[in-house]
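Course assignment 3, question 2. Fill in each field.
Student: A.L.
Task: Predict the tertiary structure for the chain below.
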Amino acid sequence: MAAWSERRLIEKIQKASSGSKRGLLKSIGDDCCEVVASGSFLISTDSLVDGIHFNRLFHPAHLLGRKSVAVNLSDIAAMGGRPRFILLSLCLPVDIQWEWISNWLDGVLEILDEYDCVLIGGDTVQAKELVLTVTVLGEPLETGAIYRNTAEVGDTVWVSGPLGSAGCGLKLLMEQLETGKKITSKGADILLAAHLNPRPQIELGLQLAGSGMVTAMQDISDGIATDLAHICKASVVSATILEASLPFSPELIPAAATLETAREDFILRAGEDYELVFTVKHGAETDFRNRLEGYADTLVKIGEIRSGKGLFLQKDDGTTKEISFQGYEH
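Answer field:
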């Protein structure tokens, strides 16, 4: 007999999802949900597997619930959209405790409320391993979504915030698990939060899409070395980024030293920052800065789109090396 009850779980979901929402005609309770489709939808899905995409030994259930949704909301942000609805498909081992499931679901519902998004359905099954699949439906602005394949030569390359924090936080947690020693690195809580509780850049994505000056965009889930390389490949261009311009949290410096890992490895190759990397139209930089002055403290120009193929890093000593697709691979 399972330690959890499917009926009890569905009842909790139904109770939390009751009430009317814009565009929702029928929610949980029938064979399908029904929503109003007045235009196009942005749709993304992700599956998180225990032991591969997360570790329950150090990832609290509540924060994992938030992250399970955040990674999907980030995909909507990357195309300049607003999330509307989500679906959950849960493969649950028979021995997983109700308290864990309940805390995970509380985290899911909490982040949905923060982004005015609603859970409208899904499925639950018994399985040998824990797998959490989230599907999100979002709406682009009337001006349209932002794609990866529309960067052009002369555009500048930007990121929305510090790089490498989440990857460093993950390595700190794994180090603690392996050694049993408490994390003592200064400011480690900031790095741990970046991994355990990432925040999707929904509002910024909408601002970027609405500016009319952003030509291509993607979220940073696998590291800048891979995610910017995706934009280059899709747009049939190359990019050069400057090592000196890459933003990172000051807490990364002592943590990388503690972990005996090169800071560059976290900044370029570590995944799950869920910041945005995007390109700004050639010649529009001044207007762009004025339009997004509210984000002046976080938006950073890191390079330029050029002709050719590949992604290149110009190092502080003036040398250049290719770093295409050197980020995290699942």
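Instructor remarks: The longest helix spans residues 61-78. The mean pLDDT is 93.
Grade: pending
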